[in-house]
Specification:
By secondary structure, the chain is an alpha/beta fold. The protein has 2 domains: 180 residues, FAD/NAD(P)-binding domain (3-Layer(bba) Sandwich), CATH 3.50.50.60; 107 residues, FAD/NAD(P)-binding domain. The chain has 6 helices and 16 strands. The strands form 4 sheets. Strands 1, 2, 3, 4, 5, 6 and 16 form a 7-stranded mixed beta sheet that branches. α1 runs parallel beside α2, α1 runs parallel beside α6 and α4 runs parallel beside α5. It is elongated, with a radius of gyration of 21 Å.
Length: 315
């Protein structure tokens, strides 16, 4: 069949690239499809310190460049295309892109998820330069500095408490006058001496010349606008928005099982509810979204895809 691949991987973040490496190394005809540049969220990280075995001063882009090279060294093909539809109803899966249509015996979905941005001026420009969406990844960089956490749900408060291990002060900025987090989490937060709270506040702008230097807040009730400037000795501070994530799963609605938030449930072997379709990385329902868990998912998905093909397709 023309244009038929053994495995098509949708997404070229760490999960997709790891899957591509393992699939191609197993001598499967492998295609990685990505609408943007490879890398996913990790390419916005200036330093990757918690990925096992990463070299000193490794950056998100340098780690991804090595992953891309490894996947290609083993023979995986990579194409840039935006996927607009999928058909998983038949044994041969069909992936429809803006550029062309692709067919595969097995599919690995690795489209990922992205943090919801605040949407204020300066946020995008200063991401990775004081603005971060991952406390586990970047908390250590703000040791003895001040940090602002934007949000009031479970993840925001839990991440804020985690950041108190590093920062000298963490302020939770919430647009309401009470947290939305579970009561048990709130109780711990209010007992934490390093935590402060700014109620009824939203972020209007984040400012800085190459690094975060100030942040502008607006009181939702009074309309008062205030600007916080970095301590002169510090020179900067951290801004961590935790207002939710968006799963990149719209094209899979009614094609595959999704949870209420749009994530894909899988078993431990990355199998979805559709035979021959696997999911890996941040798009999965999971407790920890990190590069190390994404690459593990990708490896498992590729190995399981190989087993599926061996058992369901004759030579």
């Amino acid at each position: 069949m023309e244009n038929l691949y053994d495995v098509i991987i949708i997404g070229a973040g760490p999960a997709g690239l790891a899957a591509g490496l393992y699939a191609a190394r197993a001598k499967m005809k492998t295609l990685i499809l990505e609408k943007n540049k490879a890398g996913g969220q990790i390419v916005t990280t200036n330093e990757v310190a918690n990925y096992p075995g990463s070299v000193e001063h490794a950056t998100g882009p340098s780690l991804i460049a090595r992953m891309v090279a490894q996947a290609e060294e083993f023979g995986s093909e990579r194409k840039k295309d935006t996927i607009i539809d999928v058909d998983f109803t038949e044994k041969i899966k069909v992936i429809k892109g803006q550029e062309k249509e692709y067919k595969a015996k097995a599919v690995i979905i690795a489209t990922g998820a992205t943090p919801r941005p605040i949407g204020c001026p300066g946020e995008k420009e200063l991401t990775g330069k004081g603005v971060s969406y991952c406390a586990t990844c970047d908390g250590d960089f703000f040791t003895d500095l001040e940090v602002f956490v934007i949000g009031g749900g479970d993840s925001a408060v839990e991440e804020a408490m985690y950041l108190t291990k590093f920062a000298r002060k963490v302020t939770i900025v919430h647009r309401r006058d009470a947290l939305r987090a579970a009561k048990s989490i709130q109780e711990k937060a209010f007992k934490n001496e390093k935590l402060a709270f700014m109620w009824d506040a939203g972020v209007e702008e984040i400012k800085g010349d190459g690094i975060v230097e100030s942040i502008v807040f607006k009181n939702k009730k009074t309309g008062e606008v205030t600007e916080y400037h970095a301590d002169e000795e510090d020179g900067t501070f951290g801004v961590f928005p935790f207002i939710g994530y968006q799963a990149f799963s719209d094209i899979f609605k009614e094609k595959i099982e999704l949870d209420p938030s749009g994530y894909i449930p899988t078993d431990a072997d990355m199998k979805t509810n559709v035979e021959g379709v696997f999911a890996a990385g941040d798009i999965r329902v999971k407790s920890l979204r990190q590069v190390v868990t994404a690459t593990a998912d990708g490896a498992i998905a590729a190995v399981q895809a190989e087993k599926y093909i061996e058992n369901n397709f004759e030579e």
